[in-house]
Amino acid sequence: MAKGNKKEGGAGEPRTFEELVDEAIQLEEKGDRYKDGEKAKRFYERACAMYEAADNLQPNDFDVVYNLGRLQLLLSEFPECSPSESAQLITMSIGRLRKGADLMPSNADNLYNLAQAILSKVNLMGDEENVWTDERVSLLSEASALLEKTVEMQRISLDVEHDHPEEEDTSEAIEEHEAQADQEEYETVVEVEPVTNESVHDTLMLHAQINTLQGVAAIAQAFSRVIAEFDRAAGDSFFVSAEAKIEEATRLFPESKEAAIRRAEIYSNRGDALCEVVEMDFQARQGLEGLIEESYDRCIKILTELLGKDSYHVQALCDRADAMLSLANFRVDALGGGSLTAEQLSAARELYKGANNGFTQAQNIEKSNLNIAIKIGDTMLAATRLYSADNEKVTRKVLAGNAGHWYDKAAKLGGMRNRAMIERDGTVDDSTKLILKLAKALSWNDNDDWLSAADVLSKRWKTGGGKFGANFKNFLAERDDDVCGVGFAPRVFDSDWYKSQ
Fold first, then answer.
1. Contact status, residue 55 vs residue 39, Cβ threshold 8 Å
2. Which long-range contacts (CB under 8 A, 24 or more apart) does 22-29 make?
3. What ranges in 58-133 are assigned the alpha helix state H?
4. Alpha-carbon gap, residue 209 to 119, rounded angstroms
5. Could you tell me which residues come within 8 angstroms of residue 303 by beta carbon, excluding any fewer than 6 positions away?
6. Are 284 and 271 contacting, i.e. CB atoms less than 8 angstroms apart?
7. What is the dihedral of CA 99, 102, 103, 107, to 10 degrees?
């Protein structure tokens, strides 16, 4: 990445532009040594402060603008950041990197990071809204255009370097920077790293991700506009474009395993988007059922092939398990758990079993990953719907109890038991959603273990100041079946605890 040239700093606090940039570089390098965690975060934050001070002295220095935007994006990805902090950092990063694009339009690193920052904002907006607004779609189009420009510049550079490997780099990026640089004793300089097959591969993979989301957005918007005449091919042009970029990336860097991940992502995302269409309009199920099945099946097949080469690939294990879980949930939701034939019931149970095995294998590799622990709980809780007969009550209780075990494990891994329920922006935080899942899972057992989790929910509700209304019972009822279609056991609503709320 581009950084200013380093010089020996003087004694005392940095005051001049040169000293501030030197200090920023040294602090960032200290953060790089730790890579992640609180210490790395603190060094990166201090580096940002130095870059901001330097920017105040020389507002149009490209290196300072670029490095500040890049570090703000990096900080937004730290798990220690709250969602609101991440959103603020991403917004600041986009502003800086857009300015960098104005200062030096042909710097590929800046354009690539700007596209990444925009994608982060799109994903964050999805978490908050779960709808494809015109703003989100417009941001995706901007990111796609940025990456199109980036990869074109990289292709040209790659061709030049292959044709003239010994020639000195005289790229347009350096010419632009030298033209605008301050003619002082100290100058920051863009380090133009040679373009490689791997760097072009990375750009194409990011572009494939953007195209995949554009396809998902096209499906959602096509459905919202014409419900009765939904176009089954909506989004296909974007999915085809994503496939083409993955193919090109694979030719450039054949040993990459990311190609399989991104290709599977196309089909899992298409399946998820079509499932949402069915959820909004159940009549669409018959027309889309085959396409949904095909999408998830393709995803599972691609990832199974990758796992045949690398059985310890955690993302492949989780993504394949996710696809199995989504397909099982679709079949149960679309056909109704009680309406499944013996063959369909057996197939659905095998999918839940496969999903559980995949998540469990991944968790054995990453034992402290709370998100995988939550997924194991979700899979087991969802599977309880397939054991509704009187002679299957024991199995249902065991599954629910195991789900509770994994939710409790995740809560302990994340230190979530004591966190506040409602954030400043008024949304229920992830920790409360997890405690809600825990209470639901435990409620299906014969004991009263669920009460401790339910009490945590009640206390958090009061701590939240009633931002979701004054009635806690309504809060529970509204979220009664939002976890894999499984709500609280009926006995909860007859309990003294519920009546006292």
1. no
2. 23/47, 23/50, 24/48, 24/50, 24/51, 24/54, 24/67, 28/3, 28/67, 28/71
3. 62-76, 83-103, 108-129
4. 9
5. 260, 261, 264, 316, 319, 320, 323
6. no
7. 100
- pTM of the full structure: 0.83
pLDDT per position in the chain (501 positions), as tens? 444 444 444 456 778 999 999 999 999 999 999 877 889 999 999 999 999 999 999 999 999 999 999 999 999 999 888 888 999 999 999 999 999 999 999 999 999 999 999 999 999 887 655 588 999 999 999 999 999 999 999 999 887 655 555 444 444 544 554 444 444 444 444 455 788 999 999 999 999 999 999 999 999 888 765 555 566 778 899 999 999 999 999 999 998 899 999 999 999 999 999 988 887 776 666 678 899 999 999 999 999 999 999 999 999 999 999 999 999 999 888 776 567 888 989 999 999 999 999 999 999 999 999 999 999 999 999 999 999 888 888 999 999 999 999 999 998 887 654 443 333 334 456 777 888 899 999 999 888 889 988 888 888 777 765 544 557 777 777 665 666 678 888 899 899 998 887
CB-CB contact of 189 with 21 (8 Å): no
DSSP state of 13: S
Q: Are 3 and 63 in contact (CB under 8 A)?
A: yes
DSSP state of 392: G
Residues 6+ apart with CB under 8 A from 296: 267, 268, 271, 323, 324, 326, 327, 330
Q: Amino acid identity, residue 67?
A: N
Beta bridge partners of 483: 486
Helix pair angle (62-76, 17-34), 10° resolution: 30
Helix (H) or strand (E) holding 326: helix 314-335
**Cβ atoms within 10 Å of 55's Cβ, excluding its own:** 20
The two structure tokens encoding residue 304: 């199974």
Residue 445: both structure tokens together: 């057992």
Distance between CA atoms of 466 and 141, rounded to whole angstroms?
A: 39
Residue showing tokens 């600041």: 92
By the 10 Å C-beta count (0-12 exposed, 13-18 middle, 19+ buried), 303 is classed as buried
DSSP 8-state class, residue 429: P
Least Cα distance to 65 among 99, 28, 40, 90 occurs for: 99
